[in-house]
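To fix ideas, we quote verbatim a fold written out as tokens:
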Amino acid sequence: MTNVLIYSTSTCHYCHMAKEFFKENHIEYSEKDVGTDMDARREMIEKTGSLGVPVIQIGEETILGFDKKWLQEKLGIK
């Protein structure tokens, strides 16, 4: 199974949409709340150069934002 990680905050609408997408499609994921976890925030900034969320990592690929088509393609969802 592909490792899926989402960097998010509790108030981010697109973060909630991404997590709902994962749940609806039975995709297991790990989550790091960059609003409360400063180490995770630094890690996310190192990967993207941005404070924007969500940041979604699937395997070795990372995307900033919620892009349903990209997620479907990377996760093999029709």
Notes: The CA atoms of residues 5 and 19 lie 10 Å apart.
